[in-house]
Amino acid sequence: MSAPAQLTPRAIILSVLLTVLLAAANAYLGLFAGLTVATAIPAAVVSMGVLRLLGHSSVLENNIVATGASAGSSIAAGTVFTLPALVVLGRWSYFPYLWVLAIVGLGGLLGVMFSVPLRRTLILEQNLKFPEGVATAEVLKAGGNAGSGVRLLAIAGAIAAIAKLAASALRVLPETLATSTRFGAAPVVASLQMSPALLAVGYIVGANIGFLMVAGGLIAWWILIPIFAATGGPDAQHLGMDAADAAAALWSARIRYVGVGAMLTGGLWSLWTLRGSLLSGVRTGLTAARARVQGIAETERDIPMTMVLSGIVLFVLPLFVLYAIVVQSLGVALAMAIIMIVAGFVFSSVSGYMAGLVGSSNNPVSGITISTILFASLVLLAFLGSGSAVGPVAAILIGAVTCSAAAVAGDNLQDLKAGQLVGATPWRQQVMLLIGAAASATVMAPVLNLLLQAYGIGVPAHPGVRALQAPQAHLMAAVATGIFHHNLPWDMVGLGAAIGILVIVIDRILAARKAAWRAPILAVAVGIYLPLEYTSPIFAGGLLAAFVDRALKRARPDGNLEQLRQPGLLLAAGLIAGEALIGVAIAIPIVVSGNADVLAVPASWQAGVLPGVLVMAAIAAYVYRTARVVPA
User: Measured at the alpha carbon of residue 185, what is the angle toward residues 182 and 186, in degrees to the nearest 5?
Assistant: First the structure.
């Protein structure tokens, strides 16, 4: 009896289509809120629904579709966390297609190659749990509920799309619920972005991470900003502003750098805590690379190491040329390439290990990237000198490749874990991820240019639109320019580092007590760096997930909670995809017309805050009522 087909033409085509859509959705989400979400599970559900209609589908074929589609979130993260920094710096006024394609595409391909020797170590020998890989495998094995899963994705996507259209295009509903006041000289702001996607992100990351993110936001907006405002000093100009503007000015000028310090501390701490496992993983991976295993089973075959090493050389050479064009020096370009190769492999190992521990959605890729940019900036400073105009650009380009490689490596190992559980062939999955990474990279520049022209990055592109925050990109730009121009507010960075150390101590205490909740520093750091209006709905989504989990445990005390959660996770994935894709679609008429209000209804038709709150409450209620139902 022949083995089921895996890498079939129809699986490749469907995977590429899903990859492109999910890459666009995650690009919007990453610029909007500084987060991306794993896409393998919704891709697996869609694949099972579509391929079943075409006939003779198999678990292994559906697994290939999910594997390739997961590249969409990885490449989007590598792109939107880094390359918009070049727009922030004024180096680019738009995203040049070939540069974006080469940087993130080659970075993604390198990520696949770097992860190949790590599969045996992290998946087989260390047997890490890879939670999203296990969940994907369970969805693939279940299979029979694919139709209901597709319906959940479609319904949730339609709900979120309608809500986003009503708020951002038609302007019928408000986008934000906000209030502000002053206590003496201190401004205090409370705000909530009425976004189904952010609610869904909170549902996916859970109550623990959601709480930590909003805690970081409250530290920034309810503690640090009032303290700095009350003490005056160099920020006394805020006294002439209203409370909301004053708080925003203080956050932009000072407090967000506290998030930079906390993020840097988190990235360095992640490397330190993983040092033993990292060295072991690299050592074992290199040993496996030298070994020539004869008679190996089909379910253990990776891409041959000769092809891996040849691929790394092939992918690095054009990056070396691009670096040389930027810095106009072969010696500096060589140093950049070496930093990129070393950082790419090391951080791909870290990313793979973290994906095995906490999953891809919680993988601290942004912390890894900041650490890379900081290290690269310090090294390049010795070559290029203080005040260099190209130094920050060079550091960000290194970070972009490393970020793409690390994100893809983490997702690749997650997919390979799912493949191990369903009996897939590793090399076929690795080839599919190479295809998915390349396909995702082809659409990044057009999507980013569309969003840049419609919304703007950091600065509104048109009056009346809300600019996309791109928090990580602004952070990368701040770190790189701060190193070369000596204008990083080190007092704020130091304060952030101190907060980071305190959170790490708390997390170690919780770990020692084997507490159910932990305190990963990067979640707090992202919360400090994001506006409060983004972290508050994420916290609400985490609470919603906790209520659903409680209901599921009551209904099925002995059930597999991960399996029972799947309908809720599919709803959340649908909400994210629906809002993000309609956000990209809305950008088209705005760009064509040059008018942010091209789709807006007359002002007399626009509703107040209460209808917007009711819509969000109704969406949350729908998710709760649907997700807590236990299948018979």
Answer: 60
Q: For residue 188, which phi and psi values (nearest 5 degrees)? A: -130, 130
- The CA distance from 70 to 433, in Å, is 8
Chain-centroid distance, C-alpha 396 = 17
Q: Which amino acid is at 213?
A: M
Nearest to 35 by CA among 576, 582, 581, 578: 576
What tens digit of pLDDT does each residue of 292-326 get?
555 566 677 888 888 888 999 999 999 999 999 99
Provide φ and ψ at 3, rounded to 5°.
Answer: -70, 150
**Residues near 550 by beta carbon (within 8 Å), at least 6 away in sequence:** none
Rounded Cα–Cα distance for residues 620 and 126 (Å): 39
Distance CA 582, CA 562 (A): 30
Of residues 115, 27, 111, the one with CA closest to residue 73: 27
Query: Are the C-beta atoms of 540 and 202 separated by less than 8 Å?
Result: yes
Question: Span 70-97, mean pLDDT?
Answer: 92
The answer to whether residues 40 and 73 touch, using CB atoms and an 8 Å cutoff, is no
The alpha carbon of 437 is separated from its chain's Cα centroid by a whole number of angstroms, namely: 15
Helix (H) or strand (E) holding 190: strand 186-193
Residue 560: φ, ψ to 5°: -80, 105
Q: Quote the CA–CA distance of 368 and 263 in Å, as a whole number.
A: 9
Find residue 192's DSSP bridge partners. Answer: 177
Q: What pLDDT, on a 0 to 100 scale, did the predictor assign at position 398? A: 93
Which SS3 state, helix, strand or coil, does residue 193 take? strand
The separation between CA 63 and the C-alpha centre of its own chain, rounded to angstroms, equals: 22
Q: 10 Å Cβ neighbour count for 40?
A: 30
Count of helices and strands (H, E) across the chain = 26, 2
Q: How far is CA 532 from CA 188, 192, 217, 407, 540, in A?
A: 11, 7, 5, 26, 12
CA distance linking residue 350 with residue 413, whole number of Å: 12
Q: What is the pLDDT of residues 504-526, one digit of tens each?
A: 999 999 999 999 898 988 788 87
Of residues 449, 353, 385, the one with CA closest to residue 96: 449
Q: What is the mean pLDDT of residues 486-510?
A: 92
Cα–Cα dist 409/414, whole Å: 9
